[in-house]
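cache lookup: miss for this entity combination. No prior model stored, computing from scratch. Input as submitted by user K.M.:
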Amino acid sequence: MEGLTLSDAEQKYYSDLFSYCDIESTKKVVVNGRVLELFRAAQLPNDVVLQIMELCGATRLGYFGRSQFYIALKLVAVAQSGFPLRVESINTVKDLPLPRFVASKNEQESRHAASYSSDSENQGSYSGVIPPPPGRGQVKKGSISHDTVQPRASADQQEPASPIVSPQQSPPTSPHTWRKHNRHSSGGNSERPLAGPGPFWSPFGEAQSGSSAGDAVWSGHSPPPPQENWVSFADTPPTSSLLTMHPASVQDQTTVRTVASATTANEIRRQSSSYDDPWKITDEQRQYYINQFKTIQPDLNGFIPGSAAKEFFTKSKLPILELSHIWELSDFDKDGALTLDEFCAAFHLVVARKNGYDLPEKLPESLMPKLIDLEDAADVGDQPGEVGYSGSPAEAPPSKSPSMPSLNQTWPELNQSSEQWETFSERSSSSQTLTQFDSNIAPADPDTAIVHPVPIRMTPSKIHMQEMELKRTSSDHTNPTSPLLVKPSDLSEENKINSAVKFASGNTVADGYSSSDSFTSDPEQIGSNVTRQRSHSGTSPDNTAPPPPPPRPQPSHSRSSSLDMNRTFTVTTGQQQAGVVAQPPAVPPRPQPSQASGPVVHRPVDADGLMTHTSTSPQQIPEQPNFADFSQFEVLAASNVNEEQDNEAEKHAEVLPVEKASDPASSLRVAKADSKTEEKAAASVPANVSKGTAPLAPPPKPVRRRLKSEDELRPDVDEHTQKTGVLAAVLASQPSIPRSVGKDKKAIQASIRRNKETNTVLARLNSELQQQLKDVLEERISLEVQLEQLRPFSHL
Amino acid sequence: MENELKFHYMVHTSLDVVDEKISAMGKALVDQRELYLGLLYPTEDYKVYGYVTNSKVKFVMVVDSSNTALRDNEIRSMFRKLHNSYTDVMCNPFYNPGDRIQSRVFDNMVTSMMIQVC
């Protein structure tokens, strides 16, 4: 064709346009449709367009080759300048301005054209240059240095943008930076920091159109989306379609940049680090955001309260619904306030939206607040949604690096886990049974490590529990209070699990389980081989406090003790106590062991007492037999003391306190028994075995210890055996009661002494027992109260 | 449309039951147990569950009676999630209390919950 001489600017411009039209990337032929579009955008009358096309030879060829295209463009410029369309005018017309392609979407092109023609800058002209959405493209042709395009602000440009000064802030320096950039003619696509976010608010309206036009010029690929899309809400399809078109059409794409400032599309297009990250904030943008943040909140580590943020973002004139969505996305910790990172993310999203980007459904990774490091993550996890998040601003805020994506990803996990924790704690506080609770422990396990650590006494209780387990299994009686039974076993399992878990479980378990403390507070009993089945029930911590001497059998239920006594009696006395085994002996053991007086009588009395007890129901409190025992005992005390009966008495004495212990409810009985014992002691025959009193002391006491269990009456086989051993030892140590009359006086005196000693012992016993009784009663009351409290919820 | 009206009506009438339950509680302390009101009343087709927050905001859930697999715990967890999402919506300064909730996140959560149940 005719030789076409193009100026440099023209050359660049034309090649840009060519690439824009060359959607098939042929580099040779442009698509007719695109070309026609372009020509239409030139705002030339149709006949002129046709003429141009004819002139350039396309109609002949049927397609637009590069030369044809260039010629056509030149002709367009000619036509726009008002010159007649002649073939020769291509070259003759000098200083032809670049063809202006004006259309609703192509304002940028015209601007670009103008900018090519002149390098004059319009300081105010940022507005039009808002970077297009990623879909539009940030293509930048390799050869073209867009820098020159930058300063498109020329006076005759149709800058729809009003003076750039936004109501808010416009970085006044940005045009200068642009200028600087413009002067550069860096050939390559150097990354260029964004020329400042620029005034956003006011030019936003124009920005939308501007950006698209710019896109059309520069990107050379996907046609700018219809303007409607810019204001549509969450139309992801258009965005996605744009995005998909993008890779197809991009020829030479260095970076994709989103949004942000109202700077030249060029720079912005260049800036994004990766195509896949349209949400990345550049340093310049970030700096701008930080400045904005400072205007609201001078402390960069502080928060912007929700109301202030609302005002600020409302100025952007976005719909409230979108702002609400942006807020939801950016307020990461859901605390109603924005940290610096959150604020930047929100700002970025607003700018993006203003530029036509659709809001994502989820916060993009590059926008996630990078405030979590692993430790903070744990802390944050502990306090989900707390402002404990403030730890984040402390970290290096402005540097937004995609460095911690993993942490950001853990954040939602933590959120979830925090939810798990919530669930866990909620469940634990519910009145569910223990078994359910146990099942809940496992899933929460991995997270409980991060849960607030709770002190727990693991060791002693564990050992206790195991002991208890052992003993319990060996016991004959079942624990009437099954929850207590279950609890220890659960606790033993839990001991193997996290301490936090255990704590929580301990909490729930200890509904009526006040004894969790007492449970663990009896280390001294660990060594004991006697079961402490009920000691942990913690009814009377006082009782467990004073460490009993090892030989002392642990307190057990009265039943067990009675059992012991029964067995002891059976063994030693050979009497039949068959029925007693299963029954709590109501007869308190006679403390006058030594009763030298009428041991023989004792025995039948004892037997009677025991028999009467056996005849009574296990839970019954046969007080009369006690009285009967005592009265009989008194009678017997006056009589001679027999060896055997001495033994009997001792055993009986032991039985008495044991039996006393059996029924916490048998306070009366106990009291009476105590009184009776005292009477007995007082009236006991002076033939008390003095020695017997001393050894008797230990046996009653350990027997008494069994009182500690509030309501369980578990037989304690081991205790029994031990007790019997003790008893046997005691008995063996007691001297036989002198029968000789000749020594009566001395014997009597001796027995008196012994009796007195037993008396004192018994008195002490009595007081202790009464104390135990009080404790037991208190516990009972507390349990009843708890039961009452729990009862209403059974309806839920 | 018919169904919607019916559900609206059911929820409305269940509000009375909720109020009744709240007043019956009468306890000062509020914990998770009290927030969850449980089955308010069953109809022939549906079961209505109630939940009240600390700020006296009421959630009412209507489930199909034929959905027998739905256990109490699940309902509780659903209410819990609802509560959490609701507080998130509240935290948004752009949300005016009393407006219709238009939060996408909230809607997504509710939808996912309903799908999960069905």
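stored under new cache key. The mean pLDDT of chain A is 56.
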